[in-house]
Amino acid sequence: MAMVSMRQLLDEAAKGGYGVGAFNVNNMEQIQAIMEAARETKSPVIVQASRGARGYTNDRFLYHLMLAATELYPEIPIALHQDHGNSPETCISAIEMGFTSVMMDGSLMPDGKTPADFEYNVRVTREVVEIAHARGVTVEGELGCLGGIEDGHGADVDALAHLTDPDEAVEFVERTGIDALAVAIGTSHGAYKFTKKPTGEVLVMSRIEEINRKLPNTHLVMHGSSSVPKELIDMINKYGGKIKETYGVPVEEIQRGIRHGVRKINVDTDNRLAMTAAVRKVLFEKPEEFDLRGYMKPAREAMKEVVKARMISFGQAGNAGYAPIPLEQMAQKYREQPVTA
Ligand code: 13P
To answer: Which of 6, 24, 194, 310 to probe ligand 1 with, by most ligand atoms within 8 A of CB?
Structure first.
């Protein structure tokens, strides 16, 4: 199956009342892990690449790996998404390469660090929407700022000081015409999200409910949604790692979000932890090992298990069976409903 727009995946998820995990990739083994998990669970998938990942892979390698995925897994609907585009130029280069979805993160300035004002965010996001929709490509925007830094991107602000304002969210969606809205609810990228199991004071799920009440037809996106499983941290530390005590977003909280309009859930850190733990274990137990397949294979397997578990918990498992809508047809739909605000 050719790659499809992320909008189609999210519309299907809304119809079915489930969420779709968006998993970050940096290499072949991660793409393989996601695709195998998708096949075993019959799940549609969103594969996403940050700017850092595009730089690391030289994105043409990454793109061709994704084409291989469409050939080898024809039964799986796949969307290829630009995670945290820092400028219209980044998004346009992804669209030109063949990404079927882009995030224009205008919540930050192009340096990917400085919080931007509302009018700037509206302007750049709308600019990307016009270009992307003309080609049937999906656009995710973000309002409010996450804490933490990922691949050099992130304001590293106090996440609670920049939560998404529900009224602003309504205006933002109307004026930009985005397909999906990333909301800031106290999460941050990376392993160090919370110092204890999060309560509603630091992980403000009620904010999602408020936004969903005002924007019932907008697909919401949760970033920073790794659960940071204790067993993976313990395994890394057992085999020579040094990760401090930390807590992520409990899967039950994500499921609560899914009941209130969350359709895309970003997960990167959990997969990094799983692969690191597996590599450390092999190298600790077999210090003589130097064939990289000896540790990359268990690492790929470990990531596949995490992705499968998330696909099942988010409800996307068993939902791969729909026909692709060509991007040209998506573009036609957008032409019929232009943004007028
Ligand atoms: P985690 O660091 O929690 O996996 O979040 C990833 C993310 O939001 C990518 O945009």
So the answer is: 24
